[in-house]
Amino acid sequence: MKIDILTLFPKMFEGFLSESIMARAIKSGIVEINLIDYREYSNNKHKKVDDYPFGGGAGMVLQVQPVYDALIDIKGYKDALKILVSPQGTQFKQTSAYELSKEKHMIIMCGHYEGYDERIRDYFDMEISIGDYVLTGGELAAMVLVDSVTRVIPNVLNKDESHLNDSFSNNLLEHPHYTRPRSFMGKEVPEVLLNGNHEHIRKWRLEQSLKKTRERRVDLYEMYQKGSKGE
Ligand code: ADE
After folding, report:
1. Could you identify which of 126, 157, 182, 205 might form a hypothetical disulfide with 175, taking C-beta atoms 3.0 to 4.6 angstroms apart as the criterion?
2. Model pLDDT for residues 189-205, shown as the tens digit of each residue
3. Domains and CATH numbers, the chain
4. End-to-end Cα, the chain, rounded Å
5. Does pLDDT of 231 surpass 70?
6. β-pairing, 183-184 with 61-62?
7. Which of 129, 133, 143, 147 to mutate to test the pocket of ligand 1 (most atoms within 8 A of CB)?
């Protein structure tokens, strides 16, 4: 998958793209990520990309021209899925990550300042929010999107890291995990995990998932009940 990210702060992505699973996915060629600084497309001699809002009011507004010029300079932009990240978008979910993971080419636009010139929206196919809070810019939101989409692309995670049992993948939160030591300050690993009976372990994990989801996320639990009877 090719992902082009339009941003005013490409350096914010350095750590994110150079570590762990993202770095591995890039190295193996499964994802290609390009960072495009749309300040470079400003017509302004000071490379300004924002201006005062028509009609007055606080804050600056991102101009349409540099974003448009940066966008149309991307090879294959017409066929790419063009995403604007903003707090006004539809809420991003695990199901969105699965859907987006099927795309061949995505362009993600990160905003800054008070907001966008409304006309920018006309050049994008969808607007995504990562939650009901406001960040200083779209970069963190773009990273969230890229991370969660990349990890569900086939062959990015190896067998031991499978995402198929992730929280949310079936509307249930994940069951608890334990590793060595078996006993830590009097806290014991549940016996069922130690006896090697895979059917008992499977049942116990499902029960724990159901219990956690019921206690913490009634909304998800209700969706699970509608879609599945469990056992
Ligand atoms: N930019 C600022 N806040 C955001 C949010 N919650 N989601 C996506 N993009 C944003």
Report:
1. 205
2. 999 999 999 999 999 99
3. 2-150 (3.40.1280.10), 167-228 (1.10.1270.20)
4. 37
5. no
6. unpaired
7. 129
Please report, for residues 149, 190, 222, the alpha-carbon distance to residue 212 in angstroms, rounded to integers and kept in the order given.
25, 16, 13
pTM for this predicted structure: 0.94
Residue having the nearest C-alpha atom to atom 2 of ligand 1: 135
Place of tokens 């009901």: 132
Sign of CA dihedral 12, 16, 19, 24: negative
Angle at CA of residue 174, ends 171 and 180, nearest 5°: 170
- Cα of 231 from ligand 1 centre, angstroms: 39
Residues with CB under 6 A from ligand 1: 85-87, 129-131, 133-135, 138, 141
Question: Please, is 5 exposed, middle or buried when counting C-beta atoms within 10 Å of its C-beta (0-12, 13-18, 19+)?
Answer: buried
How close is the Cα of 188 to the center of ligand 1, in Å?
A: 42
Answer whether residue 230 shows pLDDT above 70.
no
pLDDT in tens, 150-188: 999 999 998 777 787 788 878 999 999 999 999 999 999
Catalytic residue among 19, 32, 114, 215: 114
Strands (E), 97-136: 105-110, 115-116, 126-129
Query: Rounded mean pLDDT of 27-56?
Result: 97
What is the average pLDDT score of the chain? 95
Check pLDDT > 70 for residue 118.
yes
Token look-up 């049942």 returns: 203
Residue range 53-69: average pLDDT?
95
